[in-house]
Amino acid sequence: MGEVFETNRLVRHGHTDPAGIVFYPRYFEMINEVVEDFFREALGRPFGDWHRRKKTGVPTVHIDSTFLAPSYCDDVLTFSLRISKLGASSATFLITARCGDEQRLKVALTLAHVDLTVMKAIAFGDELRSDLSAFLIDDSQERL
């Protein structure tokens, strides 16, 4: 238990505001990409397959964010993803972003597994739950 999914994101000019730092909504777009990459790369479950074929998804139901330091154009951010809580139909993801040794962002993001045809929560199922559990941190690991 306690695996970490990591991926990098280049801060582009279009991510920044007139002050030259990442405009906070762009962080939320990057976070969404990180989550999508996690499901595709770490779990082998691309969103397109879920949405079109299975009619299920994992929309965000809650997000807490702390911006610790600014990020600038051409910075390379390393995003790390772990899971702090795994319920029957929801999970809380802990996501951090750093540039080098400097932490820039920390987020707690709760996703719900839903049937998209009726927009109601559904259980993860044994296989998906098992795959998600590999990224679940235990009580001895650092939380946000």
List keywords for this structure.
single chain; 144 residues; alpha+beta; Thiol Ester Dehydrase, Chain A; 5-stranded antiparallel beta sheet; 24% helix; globular
Question: Mind explaining what this structure looks like?
Answer:
By secondary structure, the protein is α+β, with helices and mostly antiparallel strands. The chain has a single domain, classed as Hotdog Thioesterase (Thiol Ester Dehydrase, Chain A, Roll). It is 24% helix and 36% strand. It has helices at residues 24-42, 47-54, 126-133; strands at residues 5-10, 56-57, 60-67, 76-86, 90-99, 102-112, 114-115, 120-121. The strands form 2 sheets. A 5-stranded antiparallel sheet has the order 1-4-5-6-3. It is globular and about 45 Å long. It starts with a strand and ends in an 11-residue tail after the last helix.
| Run of helices and strands | EHHEEEEEEEH
Number of helices: 3
How many domains? 1
Neighbour order of strands in the largest sheet: 1-4-5-6-3
Calculate the terminal CA-CA distance, rounded to whole Å. Answer: 18 Å
Mind telling me the CATH superfamily name?
Hotdog Thioesterase
Radius of gyration: 16 Å
| CATH architectural designation | Roll
Count of strand segments: 8
CATH class: Alpha Beta
Shape annotation? globular
